Amino acid sequence: MSEHDHHDDHGHDEGAHGTEPLPGVDAAPLHAAVDQLAAALHAYVGTAVGVRAEFGAHEADEDPRVLALESQIGTLNAALYDLVHETLGLHADLTGLSWDDEEPEDSSSQGEVDTFHLGFVVGPPQAASDLTLDSVLDLVDAGGAELAHRLQDAGFEVVEWGAARGAAVQFGDDEEDDE
Hints:
Blueprint: H1 14-17, H2 28-54, H3 57-61, H4 64-88, E1 97-100, H5 136-153, E2 160-163, H6 174-178
Antiparallel strand pairs: 1-2
Helix pairs in contact: 2-4
C-alpha cells in the first residue's frame, strides 16, 4: 500500500474520521488549494490553446508544456484530495470522468443492468519518453470507447461508461435508489 492508499484507518485523526459532526472547520486552506488548482487549470487552457494553434492534436498532446501542466494539475488535485481527507475525513472522488448520454439508468430492454470494472496498475515508461502517467488516462479512455462500441455491436446496451484514475468510476447515487 502506498502512503495515499486510504483503505485502512491506522493513523487517521479521530476528529476528522470520527462518527461525530465536525463543526468549526477552517475552510480557508481548502479554498486556497482550490484556487491553486483553478489557476493551474486556467494556465493549462491558455497553454493548450496556444500549443494547439501551432501544432496538430497529437503533437499538442505530447508537448512538454502541456504535459508539465497536466502533471502539475494532477499533483495539485492529489494535494486537494489529501487536504479534504485530512481535514474532513472524506474520500472525495474529484478526478473521475464519466459521460452520461441522458439515458435513464433502467433503460435496459431486459430491465436489468450491472456494473463492470477493468483496472490497471501502471508504472512510468521504462525507456526515455515524453509520456507521463497522466497520459495513461487518455489511453484508457480511448480503450473504453472502443470497448463500449464493441459491446454495443454485440447487442448490449451500454447505458454509461467512464474512465478514472485511482478509483473505479461510480455511477448513480445508491442512497437515492434506496429511498
